[in-house]
Design goal:
13 helices; 11 strands
């Protein structure tokens, strides 16, 4: 794989940063990886190679191709890359390979620039709300944060094809950040097109966040990633818990509260007015989420369950769903590892609600969930990667 030198172009009121990508194995990925920013942030945009290498190097590991990078790479980051590569490989050795990296230009970033942005991504979900709540309520937070801007991404958890939904939440989030006195940076990217059906988005998404941050590295001093529980397989952490290794001499990376379960974060901020009005958790990138989420995915149902258990459903405008047996079965089946999915107090709250039906369903589905997990790790992993990619493409057709 070759990641060419980045180029920048102004088109109307947007600045497009892009780099050409060559691979030997897969002709069906896009020719260019691109990011689009408002022209107001043109002075923040960098042509450095990390903006594209960060996003794409795991794809090269998936294709088993050595990676040549023709843009500048930080010496600190270059020293960390062996550990980063090892973390990703150990997390998913059945999908990834150890490959070589050839950095054509290792250069320290310009340290004379004024880097005034302290950034965190903002999707409107529980993790990101908790990170910003920790900024406004440092006395209550276990790990207080200091932030100046949020990053709202088109093409990350909302599809590029779903423009009505993104435009709606961009307007709503812009109002929210204006009220907070913070900046909100919108960005769109086609990064998901490189990874879909190949590498799970739950950990390749971290790479995109690191890439976008470095695309803005002329002004970004720090990036804080809102994190969920990152335990991965057994006791091994997912690689996103080690995002600090993406740091350079001038832009520091950190993960916020990745050891705190997402459900516990939501419970902590249930009474915060902004989260009651703006919480959005849906996993369906294609769904029109302007009125509410799909109410079918794991996140929608789990969030509704928490609100139901804490008698908060009437206070959250985005959620309007009864916890039926069918919905609960759907959630239990959708969870990748149900045996680890029993937040403290859930079963106790269900008893108080006299929902012994849901408790029984949980224990009934658990062995089937464990068997599904076994099939995924032992059987499906043996099917050739390109065959799986082709099958998924035909099934989902997006």
């Amino acid at each position: 794989m070759i990641i060419h030198q980045a180029e920048i172009e102004t088109i109307g009121d947007e600045v497009v940063l892009s780099a050409r990508v060559e691979t030997k194995r897969s002709p069906d990925i896009p020719e260019y990886l691109w990011y689009k920013f408002p022209v107001a942030y043109q002075d923040a945009i960098s042509l450095r190679g990390e903006a594209f290498f960060n996003t794409l190097f795991v794809l090269g590991m998936h294709f088993n191709e050595d990676i040549e990078v023709r843009g500048e790479i930080s010496p600190i980051f270059a020293n960390n890359i062996d550990e980063i590569r090892s973390n990703y490989y150990l997390h998913d050795p059945k999908k990834l390979n150890i490959v070589g990296f050839d950095f054509k230009s290792v250069q320290i970033p310009d340290d004379s620039l004024r880097r005034d942005i302290k950034l965190a991504s903002f999707s409107g979900g529980a993790d990101s709300f908790y990170t910003f709540w920790s900024h406004f309520h440092p006395e209550k937070a276990k790990d207080p944060t200091q932030l100046t801007h949020g990053l709202f991404i088109d093409g990350y958890d909302i599809s590029l094809k779903n423009q009505d939904t993104y435009a709606y939440f961009l307007r709503e989030n812009k109002k929210l950040f204006d009220d907070w006195g913070l900046g909100l940076i919108p960005v769109s990217t086609n990064a998901h097109s490189f990874y879909k059906y190949r590498i799970p988005w739950h950990y390749s998404g971290t790479l995109v966040l690191a890439g976008i941050t470095m695309a803005l590295s002329k002004r970004v001093a720090s990036y804080t990633q809102p994190g969920n529980v990152e335990l991965g397989h057994g006791k091994r952490k997912r690689p996103s818990a080690n995002i600090r290794l993406f740091s350079t001499e001038s832009t520091k990376f950190s993960s916020h509260a990745h050891s705190i379960d997402r459900s516990k974060k939501l419970i902590k901020i249930l009474d915060w007015a902004p989260v009651q009005k703006h919480l959005r958790v849906c996993l369906d990138m294609q769904y029109d989420q302007r009125s509410q989420g799909c109410q079918k995915c794991e996140k929608c149902i789990n969030t509704n369950l928490i609100l139901y258990l804490y008698d908060k459903q009437n206070e959250f405008t985005y959620f309007d769903m009864k916890i039926t047996i069918f919905k609960f079965i759907r959630m239990c089946w959708a969870v990748g590892n149900l045996s680890a999915y029993r937040p403290k107090g859930y079963l106790g709250f269900l008893k108080k609600k006299n929902r012994y039906d849901l408790i029984a369903i949980y224990w009934m589905i658990l062995p089937f969930s464990n068997f599904k997990k076994y099939l995924s790790s032992e059987f499906i992993s043996r099917i050739p990667r390109e065959v799986i990619y082709t099958i998924k493409g035909k099934i989902y057709k997006n």
